[in-house]
Amino acid sequence: MKRLSDIGTIKEILSRHGFSFSKGLGQNFLINPSVCPRMAELSGAGSGVGVIEIGPGIGVLTQELCELSDKVVAVEIDKRLIPVLEETMEGYENLRVINEDVLKLDLNKLIEEEFPDMSVVVCANLPYYITSPVIMKLLEDKLRIDSITVMVQKEAAQRICAEVGTRQSSAVTAAVNFYCKPEMLFSVSAGSFMPAPKVDSAVIRLDIYKEPPYTLDDDKKFFTVVRAAFAQRRKTVLNSISSSLGLEKQVVNELLLECRVNPQARAEKLGMDDFVRIARRLIL
Predict the structure, then answer these.
(1) Rounded average pLDDT over 181-206
(2) Is the pTM of this model over 0.85?
(3) Which residues touch 81 (CB under 8 Å, ≥6 apart)?
(4) Distance between CA atoms of residues 53 and 59, nearest Å
(5) CB atoms < 10 A from the CB of 261, how many?
(6) What CATH architecture is 219-281?
(7) What is the domain partition of the chain in residue ranges?
(8) Most exposed among 98, 201, 223, 225, judged by the fewest C-beta atoms under 10 Å?
(9) 6-33 residue pLDDT tens
(10) How far apart are CA 241 and CA 224, in angstroms?
(11) Distance between CA atoms of 44 and 147, rounded to whole angstroms?
């Protein structure tokens, strides 16, 4: 088992394959040997569990997941890394690497084909620029998965794991809480990567609700309300929703009062129950 977190090993492998880091893809490879084993263990990977990994890079986390789980499917967008992974992951018969953009992939189909009789978890070191789109796709696609364990920018992790209705909360906070229970696991310093990013990271885990605490005829309406409320977060929820959805202020004002929501409050002051009540009554 190669030490893929070793700087010398990484440089030697990448040099041999003529690989250079892409800023556009947000590539930062882990060089802290303690991070990936801990992350893999906390992800729920294990016997009888299948894992979807997003952005395996050179395979440092992939190795740990393959050691723990019966099967791992790694989705890598950068075709230049495919031959690298063929070398670094040689010998792991329980791994399949797919050269695709995860945002365009039919993950429900992938799960049914690759993990028909297995529990499934997602584990990934996500590039900062696609954190929210990837997390929202995983949740909105309503996949047959138990949890999502991802490493993201620390600020994003704090926002995702914030309590809805607090100053640190955002649209993604409410969206995540609609589907799952988020938990901050541990922090990862910028020096744990090569090249080192300008900010620290953190690993979070999102445990998907088996029985959703909130029920709506149309889930999409909830997300429409949340996005509209936070679209202009410095404005009142009345102004932000009316402006974003093109509705008359009087109509929105009456709706908010019916939902026991202060029209002059900002979106960050609203709780999950507030957003759900608005979504249930809103007619678009």
Answers:
(1) 93
(2) yes
(3) 19, 56, 57, 58
(4) 10
(5) 22
(6) Orthogonal Bundle (1.10)
(7) 7-208, 219-281
(8) 98
(9) 777 878 887 888 777 666 666 777 888 9
(10) 9
(11) 8
